[in-house]
Design brief:
Elements: H1 11-16, E1 50-52, H2 61-77, E2 80-84, H3 90-104, H4 108-112, E3 123-125, E4 140-147, H5 164-189, H6 196-200, E5 207-215, E6 227-230, E7 236-240, E8 248-252, E9 255-258, E10 266-270, H7 272-277, E11 287-289, E12 297-305, E13 311-312, E14 330-331, H8 332-342, H9 348-353
Parallel strand pairs: 1-2
Antiparallel strand pairs: 2-10, 3-4, 4-5, 5-12, 6-11, 7-10, 7-12, 8-9, 8-11, 13-14
The structure holds N-oxalylglycine (OGA) and nickel (II) ion.
């Protein structure tokens, strides 16, 4: 049976133990370490897209098309954007963050009841990948299935705090609505039928998983990462970022750029399966998370994925003689095995799917 290769250490416990130097398993090679530029203005010229979704399905065609063209540009050039007026209640976002912060603040024994294994990853975890001796990330997480309903197993969701399950259902419901609207917009922009991507992902059987990331304080943030560089393997991710500290970085034009979330925004991240379906018209974005010595943080990533046994391939409509299919067809189950075994690896997995790679 598949299990963790080493004894699991909870990063939160390590952080709370008051150590001044982080153990060597968390020290990244020099080239992967974050660069801290306190007070730096270096990236001010970079205009990270912030898109107001209020008019996305507005009756006025000019306003609708204007919003659609912004989404289009962001997905083609950046692979992500910040969404405001996204329809998810701000109060609910606050409650979702709070209830999960309360979960991570429960005594260790309570959380351990949900300890996960690398078979399904569901539950309370502290690593991705099962390679013995791997360099680990400075974070703990909780992972659960939200959709399809057949995979939803509330007994694997935290029983405490008492409102946790209810908040997950409420928050998940609103984020699913947002995702549905975004997939329609993306399909239309790619010249596909409005429901194309949703249907390619299994329609109402599409997968949705929630990963709540907890980033404990770190005494040496310059040596490690909260989450190593990766692109999200699924379709799209809707991320509720940490409120107080900018931690997320995206790799754009050969440079790591820190995202400063605007108030009450949600971050939309294009994943690998959308890059495949769009035949690389849309790009999945490589991203990573930095840690902080003064503040811990919580983020909620809701991943929308193809139903796991469906074969995903470039849509016929975006493939032509001039632009042949770039990727091999593959089920999502098979695709994500790489991340589940090896942990985060930049965009190496997607690159390996390209035809004619040696
Ligand atoms: C993820 C992710 C970013 C964050 O969970 O895949 O990229 O800010 N999270 O926690
Ligand atoms: Ni991610």
């Amino acid at each position: 049976m598949l299990s963790w290769p080493e004894q699991v250490v909870r990063v939160q416990s390590l952080s709370e133990s008051g150590i001044r130097a982080i153990p060597s398993q968390y020290i990244k090679p020099l080239t992967e370490r974050p660069v801290f530029e306190p007070g730096s203005l270096v990236h001010q010229h970079v205009d990270i897209p912030v898109i107001d979704l209020h008019n996305l399905f507005c009756k006025d065609p000019t306003l609708h098309l204007d919003t659609l063209s912004r989404i289009s540009a962001a997905c083609r050039e950046w692979g992500f954007f910040q969404a405001v007026n996204h329809g998810v209640s701000h109060e609910l976002m606050r409650r979702a963050r709070e209830v999960w912060r309360d979960f991570f603040n429960l005594p260790l024994e309570v959380k351990q009841e949900y300890a996960n294994t690398p078979i399904t990853y569901e539950g309370y975890g502290s690593r991705l990948g099962v390679e013995k001796g791997a360099i680990l990330d400075w974070s703990d997480y909780f992972f659960l299935h939200y959709l399809p309903v057949s995979l939803r197993n509330q007994s694997k969701w935290p029983e405490q705090p008492s409102s946790c399950r209810e908040v997950i259902v409420e928050y998940g419901g609103e984020v699913v609505k947002l995702c549905t609207r975004l997939l329609k917009a993306m399909s239309t922009d790619l010249g596909l039928e409005e429901e194309y991507i949703k249907n390619a992902f299994g329609g109402d059987n599409m997968g949705a998983c929630l990963r709540v990331n907890f980033y404990p304080k770190c005494p040496q943030p310059e040596l490690t990462l909260g989450l190593s560089s990766h692109s999200d393997p699924g379709g799209i991710t809707i991320l509720l970022p940490d409120r107080d500290v900018s931690r997320l970085q995206v790799f754009i034009n050969d440079d790591w750029i820190t995202v400063n979330p605007v108030s009450n925004s949600l971050i939309v991240i294009v994943g690998d399966q959308i890059q495949v379906v769009s035949n690389a018209i849309y790009k999945s974005v490589e991203h990573r998370v930095m840690v902080n010595s003064a503040k811990d943080g919580v983020s909620l990533a809701m991943f929308f994925n193809p139903k796991s046994d469906l074969v995903i391939e470039p849509a016929k409509e975006v493939v032509s003689e001039e632009r042949p299919a770039l990727y091999d067809a593959m089920t999502f189950d098979h695709y994500r095995l790489h991340m589940r075994m090896k942990g985060p690896c930049g965009k190496a997995r997607l690159e390996s799917l390209k035809f004619n790679t040696p």
